[in-house]
Design brief:
about 190 residues, alpha/beta, Rossmann fold
């Protein structure tokens, strides 16, 4: 799989096992190269993923300790609700700090978006789509790769189709492809 700094990818999968199969090599490669790696996922799932990742890496637990896990309450749902502007402020601040310190030449982030399932309503979905479209600007502002992961068992076409359009690249069945339906931040209503 060919990924480059600035990539904003919508990964579609079914179930936690397939999610983990997709992002394990993504994070393993980054940790092996000493890159900053962040997994936005519920703490319990993040710890379990960190253990699975450790078993897949020659360096084991030592390298996996470098994987930061941030639960939705510390990221997407900081004040108990989703605010795309606040989330982008948090992400810009994290990137600025990460690269200003010179500790990494590339950052890798993956976000399990399952936290959003219970919030899906038209107004929320519109805000999430606007956020995803603007996240491309953030990812391109620093040397980083971002993967937004949507479980097809949790989200229907009414959510997935517009969200896919907010990502320049799509990852499906192990393949990352350019998205011919991509609508940039200025095109998303």
């Amino acid at each position: 799989m060919s990924l480059a700094p600035g990539d904003h990818i919508c990964a579609l999968y079914r179930g936690q096992e397939e999610r983990d199969q997709l992002i394990t090599p993504f994070f393993a490669d980054g940790l092996h190269e000493g890159q900053a790696c962040v997994f936005l996922a519920p703490e319990r799932e993040g710890r379990a993923f960190r253990d699975r990742l450790a078993m897949s890496m020659p360096e084991g637990r030592l390298a996996c300790a470098e994987l930061q896990v941030k639960p939705p309450e510390e990221s997407y749902l900081q004040n108990g609700t989703f605010d795309g502007d606040s989330m982008l402020d948090l992400l810009y601040s994290w990137s600025h700090g990460t690269f200003a310190e010179g500790n990494s030449n590339l950052a890798r982030l993956a976000a399990d978006m399952s936290w959003a399932q219970s919030l899906v309503r038209p107004a929320f979905t519109d805000e999430l789509i606007r956020y995803e479209a603007r996240a491309t600007r953030w990812l391109r502002a620093y040397p980083q790769i971002g993967i937004c992961m949507y479980d097809l068992d949790k989200f229907g076409g009414d959510v997935i189709i517009p969200l896919v359009k907010a990502h320049p690249r799509v990852w499906l069945n192990g393949m990352v492809v350019e998205n011919p339906y991509y609508m940039g931040p200025d095109e998303v209503a």
